[in-house]
Design a protein that fits this description.
Layout (H helix, E strand, L loop, with lengths): L1 E7 L5 H11 L5 E6 L2 E4 L3 H6 L7 E7 L3 H12 E3 L2
Antiparallel strand pairs: 1-4, 1-5, 2-3, 2-4
Helix pairs in contact: 1-3
Length: 84
Amino acid sequence: MVERSVLINASFDAESAAKLVQKANRFKSRISLVAEEKTANAKSIMGIISMDLQGGNAVTIVADGEDEHHALPELGNIIGTTAS
């Protein structure tokens, strides 16, 4: 299991959420987003939208599976920039 914290782009909207879900579904790994007290399956558009992700906030991408190391950078680029 690997994880990466990302700062959400101010422009993260429904279209960005759809791109994230499409990209996440290309990976075999289980992928989740964690923000504050909420966790959502990154392969579920309803789950991502229900998180109500806001630009400037942080989210953690968690991937677990055979292609987990490939998933983090690709999904992180859609969401925003790596948090320090």
